[in-house]
Amino acid sequence: MLSGQHAFITGGSQGLGYAIARKLGSHGCQVTLLSRNLEKLQRKVEELNEIYPHPQNHDCVAYDLRNPSGLESMVKNYERLKTANILVNCAGMSQSSLLMSTPSQEIQDIINVNLTSPLILSKLFVRNMLRLQNPNIVNISSVLARDCARGTAAYSVSKSGLNKLTQTLAFEMKSKKVRVNAIMPGLMPETDIGKKVTKGTVKSSRLSCEDVAEKVLLLIVDPELTGECVAVE
């Protein structure tokens, strides 16, 4: 289904990001994973190469998205990323405190990881995507972009911004055939974010990473969908 295609997935070493990598890899896609922990990344890439071998091999790059100012150099210096026709902005940083109790640096980190880095990566990747088959971007947002919950002000704002990025970039790139969509998952108890969210702030859910990964795949292969922010609960 995705033979000959290449996906770059942030937050790809665990949780939802790795579930998406497995899902795409199982359909013949080459994947490149990004997260902060190189050792964990290398273990996951070895696993992917064993379970879903690819002629070009799956690979990884370690980078801290709390520092978006270095993204342009990272992308420029990593030649293999020029073949990526799929960008999945999945990395996320959660919040579990009232805004008045959240350190200013934590607020900045949340915005950098959840919104600023996807903005910059989208800008950088879309240039190369113009010459590739099936070019598209999938942003992993949250139902908290729509709903209100205590202790999630900065997180919710970042995800609302990600939705607006999705819609506006889709509008800008429609004539260029680059599709941009977002998934808004409910709480996934198996993820780190799902575990850290304060109990009672959002309704309980049985949503799994596999459920969301399947929705991501459907967005990637549907040639008609763009500018959509799809809730998965």
UniProtKB/TrEMBL annotation:
GO BP terms in the entry:
fatty acid biosynthetic process
Q: What name does UniProt use for this protein?
A: 3-oxoacyl-[acyl-carrier-protein] reductase
Domain of life, per lineage: Eukaryota
InterPro entries in alphabetical order: NAD(P)-bd_dom_sf (IPR036291), SDR_fam (IPR002347)
Q: Which UniProt keywords apply?
A: Oxidoreductase
| Gene Ontology MF terms in the entry | oxidoreductase activity, acting on the CH-OH group of donors, NAD or NADP as acceptor; quinone binding
- Give start-end ranges for the coiled-coil region(s): none
User: According to its UniProt record, which protein family does this protein belong to?
Assistant: Belongs to the short-chain dehydrogenases/reductases (SDR) family.
